[in-house]
């Protein structure tokens, strides 16, 4: 009897060892991980060439890891175990901070010269400002605190939040812009007047639509001070609409949505302004909100403007109003859903992806009346992507 049980046990183990990789490779599969926001590894086609050059076998480990049966369930269970019974304050490099998710930061022990970096970045921006003014336009820099910067108080006292470094970066950038006489809309004091946390997602690194609206109004107020008479969407003339969909924030996705974070993605309704839209030169649907297919599908910050686009163009066919050019990272997306209403034409560039022309070449060709650079404070001094103007 004992021998029979041993044989049965070994048979089950062998069956599992065979079934798991076979089902993982040949069973139902998905190509993209919604949680990790990436394309999953695929197995190289089986052929004599891929066998002899070793590519089939080298791809097997990654493919099995990405497509193992029940992968998302196992990873979600791991997060729940770490965050629940084990009470870990950091899981998957995400700090679990009292209902708010923030990135784990490694303490900075070196003392880089932020002042000089602020001077250098402001000098580069001044060249763009000078070009805009030579064409009769206006340049404005808009600074937005990133979520973990705005909600730094949710870091436990014993964990490094990066607040001191971020504050130094803010000071150096503000000083550099002031030294060059560049118009600067700093959203930190504006947000703090009414309570900064209401303007941010708890599980995503962006601000929410209400934060974007306050930013829109701050931009329009500054342009009014500079002599621009623009139509303004007032808050009493719009209505926020919360989507019923589950929210996949950039930070909550890292935890496979296994931690209870209360977030809602909102859109707004207001009086219609007809427009045509092009993305990367191709005509697309005339909308600034890309909605999920149904109420159960996940919603994310990509609802706004359909996510990052190398180039987006909206023409409201009102030639009496100024032309706008916006460039910046994804923080520009949500505020663009408001900005187009105040201009005859709005174009936006994400220099991380747009490569057809340099920013200066684009400005010379388009000749916008207003140019906005929108960046978050964690990227103020970065000379890459939307900080690289060459």
TrEMBL record:
Pfam families in UniProt: ALGX
Recorded metabolic or biological pathway in which this protein acts: Glycan biosynthesis; alginate biosynthesis
One of the record's GO cellular component terms: periplasmic space
Top-level taxon: Bacteria
GO BP, sorted A to Z: alginic acid biosynthetic process
Molecular function GO terms recorded: transferase activity
Keyword hit for Signal: yes
Name of this chain's protein: AlgX/AlgJ SGNH hydrolase-like domain-containing protein
Taxonomic source organism: Candidatus Ventrousia excrementavium
